[in-house]
Amino acid sequence: MAFIDLKAQQERIKPQLDAAIARVLANGNYISGPEVAEFEQQLADYVGVAHAVSCGNGTDALQIALLAEGIGAGDAVFVPSFTFAATAEMVALIGATPVFVDIDPNTFNIDVEHLEATIDAIASAGDLKPRAIIPVDLFGLPADYASIEAIAAKHGLYVLEDGAQGFGGTQNGRRACSFGTVATTSFFPAKPLGCYGDGGAVLTNDPERAAVMRSLCIHGKGTDKYDNVRIGMNSRLDTLQAAILKEKLAVFDEELVSRQAAAERYEAALSNHVRTPRVPAGFTSSWAQYSIIVDGDRSAVMASLKESGIPSVVYYAKPLHLQTAYKHYPVGPGGLPKTEFTAEHVMSLPMHPYLDEATQAKIIDAVKNAVAVKEKV
Ligand SMILES: *Cc1c(COP(=O)(O)O)cnc(C)c1O
Predict the structure, then answer these.
(1) Averaged confidence pLDDT in the chain
(2) Residue 133 CA to its chain's centroid (Å)
(3) What element of type H or E holds 151?
(4) What is the gyration radius of the CA atoms in the chain, in angstroms?
(5) Is pLDDT at 375 greater than 90 in this prediction?
(6) From the alpha carbon of 165, which atom of ligand 1 is closest?
C-alpha cells in the first residue's frame, strides 16, 4: 500500500504526460521554454493572483520572497515551530531571526493569540525589529489569514504565506497562495501539486515585487542575465517540469474532490477513536496530509498498522525550536506547549486522490484495532 500513490495518478494521465514530455524533447528549450510561461499564467489564474514566478523549489521561493522584501539582520520573522525546516531555515539563512510561535493543535496552524503575544514580547524587548510573519498552511489547510492579516496590519508586518502544502485549500472562497503580500509554494512530488523533480513558485498581486522576484531568480538580472542589477540566485523551474505540471494542474480540481471524499470517510469512521483534523467553518483543505492525534503511545499504534501492511508517517516528531540548528532562536512567551504535545502525538495516515474505499476501509479497521488494543494494555 502506498502512503501517497503517485503511480496511480501517472497511469491516469500517462498519454498527456508522454506527449508533453515528447514536445519538450523535440523543441529542445530545456530552460525557460514556452511551457514555463504558460504554466505560470495558468498557476496565477488558478490561484487568482496577478503574478506567478516559478523557481527551483519551495525553499528557494521562500528565500526569494524574503530577499525581495529586504529582510535581514536585526529583523524578527514570526514562524510556527511545527513546520518543515525550510520555513525558518530561509529566515536564518538571509541573516534575520526566526521567532517561534505555538500552534493550534486542532488545525496544526499558527496560534493567532500566541502570535500577537509573541510580537508584543519581541517589540518590548527591543533587540529585534518585528518585520514579517510566515504562516504555514500545514497539511493542506490555510492558516487563519483573516486574523493574521489584521494582526499584521496593526503591527505593520509583511505577511509571506508558506503555501508549500496548502496549494488547493481555501478560506472564504480565496485560494491558498493568494494570501499575504507574497505566497510561496512547492512542486516537490509529494505536495498536493507535485512534479517529477524539484519545483516551486512565488505568487503576488504586486507587479513591482513580481519583477524583483523574477530578477532574483535569474542572477539579479536587469534587461537580461548579463545585465546584473542586484545580487540574486539561479533558481528556475525547468521546461520539462512545467510541461508536466500543466498536465497535472488540468486534473487537480478533480483530485481535490477525491481527497475531500477520502477525508470525509476518515472523519466519519475515526472521529470517535482518535482526534481527527478540524477544518474550521469557511475553510477547505487540500489534504496534503491526513494527520490525527492519538492519545498514549503513538509508536505502538504505528507498529500495529505496520503489521497490517499500512504505512504511516510522523510529521513532525521534532519541532524546529528543539532542533540543534534552531534551538538558540527565541520562542514566544510561555514556550510552545501545544507544539510539543502535537509533535509527540501526531501521525499521518495514507492520503491521496486515488485512495479507493476498499483500501481505506482496511486502514480504518486497522486504526480502530490499534487504538483499541493500545487502550487495553
Ligand atoms: C516542502 C515544504 C517546503 C519546501 O519545499 P521544497 O520544494 O522541498 O524546497 C517549505 N515549506 C513547507 C511547509 C514545506 O512543506
Answers:
(1) 97
(2) 15
(3) helix 145-155
(4) 21
(5) no
(6) 15
**What letter would DSSP give residue 320?**
G
Nearest CA to ligand 1 atom 6: 58
Q: Is 185 in the pocket of ligand 1 (CB under 6 A)?
A: no
Q: Measuring CA to CA, how many Å separate 322 from each of 121, 317, 327?
A: 20, 10, 5
**Ligand 1 pocket member 58 (CB < 6 A):** yes
Cβ proximity of 165 and 288 under 8 Å = yes
Distance 161 CA to ligand 1 centre (A): 12
Contacts (Cβ under 8 Å, ≥6 apart) of 28:
none
pLDDT of 376 strictly over 60 = no
**203-254, pLDDT tens digit by residue?**
999 999 999 999 999 999 999 889 999 999 999 999 999 999 999 999 999 9
* Whether residue 289 has its Cβ less than 6 Å from ligand 1: no
Question: Does ligand 1 come within 6 angstroms of the Cβ of 59?
Answer: yes
Q: What is the 188 CA–ligand 1 centroid distance (Å)? A: 7
- 111 three-state secondary structure: coil
Q: Is the CB of 263 under 6 A from ligand 1?
A: no
The yes-or-no verdict on residue 377 having pLDDT over 50 is no
- 9 close to ligand 1 (CB < 6 Angstrom): no
**What does the alpha-carbon distance between residue 79 and residue 112 come to, in Å, rounded to a whole number?**
11
- pLDDT > 90 in the chain, percent: 97
Q: How confident is the model over 193-216, as pLDDT tens digits?
A: 999 999 999 999 999 999 999 999
Condensed to tens digits (0 to 9), the pLDDT of residues 262-272 reads: 999 999 999 99
86 lines ligand 1 (CB under 6 A): yes
